[in-house]
Amino acid sequence: MTTINNISNEEYQTYLMDALRCGARFFAIQDAYGIVWDLSETLNIGLTYVRNVPCKDLVEMVQNARIADIPPKELINFSRADLVIEARDAEGDTHYIAVEASFTATQRDASRAQRNAALLTRFTGRLAYAVISSVRKDHDAEAEIAAGNAWWHELEERDMEVE
Asked: Tens digit of pLDDT per residue, the chain (163 long)?
């Protein structure tokens, strides 16, 4: 059995980063209503939260699409998205929000959210938005947000603290 006393610094850092990512994902899921409201207010599109889309539904989207030009690993990663939210606008049209959650958002998070939003649109024919949900964001994530390629939903650092 591995204990905290006999692991390397690198293993500890990896463990810590995984724990922070899990915490960020948990709080993004808990704040799904807030993510919809935040995006809706930012874009002035009047979205209403419907549900968090379960992994089962994402897998069914992939299976029903049967698209040969998308690498299998990309489809697997899509089905394991941090969070996908279904929302409706005032006219009743369905929209999707692809969320990637991290303690500190990076280019990788922005790219994943963009990829998942593009796949959602491709699989459903509906509008989808890329959102990064994090406590902080690095320079590369800032650039993606400033360019309008992704939107940022801020998580509260106090939510990530252990009491």
From this structure: 444 555 566 654 444 444 444 556 676 777 888 899 999 998 899 999 999 999 899 988 888 876 777 888 888 889 889 999 999 999 999 999 999 988 889 999 999 999 999 999 999 999 999 999 988 899 999 999 999 999 998 887 765 554 4
Write the single-letter amino acid at 31. Answer: D
Distance (Å, rounded) from C-alpha 29 to C-alpha 32? 5
12-41 in b/e form (b: 16+ CB < 10 A) is eeeeeeeebbebbbebbbebbebbbbbbbe
Helix axes 32-43, 9-30, angle to 10 degrees: 70
d(CA 44, CA 96): 15
